[in-house]
Fold:
Amino acid sequence: MPARVKDEHRSACPIATTLDLVGDKWSMVILRDLLTGKRRFAQFLTSPERITTNVLADRLARLETYELIERRAYSERPPRFEYLLTEKGAGLLPVLQEISRWANTYIPGTWHPPDMFMRMKVRGTGARRAPHAEPIEV
Structure:
């Protein structure tokens, strides 16, 4: 389990506190990739935004610290990990869908997400950490 982060936020504003967690250049892109099926470090590197390995490692650790994702070993030798959304992380799906709709409406030339992504709904258990809280297509 990664080190806990101080609960220091700029304010109690829900927008500001959310941006404190995922408002950097890369976190929501990584969450998008997790929502669309990427799980392993090398898979994230294939995204068109071309994140560097050091930034990716930093953001994955940060997302794990904020309990938006969890890391699970899939190989002991050499040590290899995959990353899974927690229920808290999967709960950002509607936010990413709305950002996509907004960008498609107001920013010419933006990609239209796959219909599968835009139709997804989140299935959760109500548990604080639910690695199986994966988006499901409806």
